[in-house]
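user:
I keep going back and forth on a fold encoding question. Separate attempts, laid side by side, tell us more than any discussion would. Would you put together a sequence-and-structure record for a protein of your own picking? Write it directly below this note and I will take it from there.

assistant:
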Amino acid sequence: MIKVADYVIRYLADVGIDKMFVVYGAANGDLIDAFTRISHTQYVAVMHEQAGGFAAEGYAKVSGKPGVAIATSGPGGMNLLTSMGNCFYDSIPCVFLTGQINTRFLRPDQSVRQVGFQETDIVGMATPVTKYAKLVLKPEDIRYELEKALWLSQNGRPGPVLLDLPMDVQKAQVDEAMLMGFDPKPAGESFDIEYVDTQIRELLEDLGRSKRPCILVGGGVRLAGAHDAVRELGATLKIPCFPTWNALDIITSDYEFYGGRVGTYGGAGRNFGIQNCDLLLAVGSRISGRITGGNVQSFARGAKKYVVDVDRALLQPKLQQLPFDVNILCDGLIFIQRMLAHLNQNGTKQYFPSWERWMAQVRKWKEQYDPVRPEFFDNRDRVHPYAFMRVLSQKMGRTDILVGDCGGNIVVSNHSFETQYGQRNLTNNGNSPMGFSFAGAMGAWFADPTRQVVCTIGDGGFNMNLQELQTFLNYGVKVKTFILNNHIYGITKAFQETNFQGRAEACGPNGYKPPDFVKIVEAYGIKTVRIEEQADMEQSIEEVLNFDGPVVCDVNMHEFHTYEPRIFGWKTPIEDMYPYLSREEFLSNMIIEPVEGWQNPAFPDVVHSVVK
């Protein structure tokens, strides 16, 4: 016989999860007590449940195993909802466990608001942002529900799951030999491989006619374990590859066929590469509005478009913001492996044209339109964030992990930080909550303490979870944190200048003023560094990175809120970015050249808002 709570913790430990993030409460007491009877996993007691969920996400992204966060009933579980949304929208496998009041005190009907103290229908709240959420009422169901939840979190399109465990269920004794297990369907059963091969042959025929092909790589490629394979595919075809923000550590800045960064805040290359392609293969990306811009019909509008995804819903043209021409339902790794096999079979690739001139043109755009301009390094009275992030990328090592927060600072990072293959570049893009990176970096460090973990975060985000400084201290978490401190909500202020005639309300200085973070961090007994001027930047970055322990560095970027290049308005094609080019320079970068026989229209007469 074994106690249900012990069975749960032991099962998760047996699948290799060696750290779980918890906040103690009466309703999850038996789960946390179970850690005292096991040696191959440990709990990490965080200060706030939201931070625990963010840490579980960071742990999952680095370890490749599901993250686990455990909370009590009522407000404890509700504090995990943002973390569940993070994992749901970024497709991250995490297991959330909540304690629940004893079953005899649960409300008998939904018309009754509450019976037990801190009784909450967390399953009802979590269902929209989880793949599976279940209140376990029978102790004998625990094996089935746990196995099912863990399997669902990792298979198909990954995501979070929730098990809500009443106190009496946790305490119950069960006979392991009598527990019924979960029998999943074989992985990959839904893929019609013969049809996928037919679609690959169509793609290869179109490649043979293409003059400007490219690949768009999304975060789903890593979830499929295809990050090495997609780089091999790009190198085999020798064509430009563009990462989404979730794939900046797959198609890295040092990759030979890296074409730049894309989207409404498109970085190096200003989107000219992807907008001029005539054949687009997207793998593992949902092609969101942040990629296409609001003028979705103008996205890669001269291209025949193929998309590969494991999520059937994303492949239905009626549900796509921009319908693709060919939708391929397949696991990313299986697709790429089969495509490589076709390319190598009978020397197929030798019949392709050379795309060397096209690749050279994309590289030229990438280098010509680098968002980090030389004059950014001439600042004297403050640190320019673009210069800072470029220098930080030069100082960090090939196996380091960068965890960035949301808001303006992640735009700066994704414009300026040049990635190396072997690094991890993490944030949460789908939900994008302020304060994620500080706790997410903690989870990343617990996943692999041998790697240098660097957190970048704005002053607004740092306010959200700075209580975890105590967790850093309690566990010796050696994360290096840089606060990109502009003393305002920068991206909010930029938004207000564009949309509200510059009325800066509730973002600073009106309604928002951050504290002196150095004083707060010092009160926790953690090392601090200040960077006031750009002249001190390189030496101070090295000091922080070389320190053997947690350190927080406050970087003076006072009032900076200019994030460029960017598009203005949702009717603007993404290649038409501010700062605007002259009309002559703009048109010189547009290739108006159709491929005969394709239904997609070639570039029409260009009508843009560029400076004339």
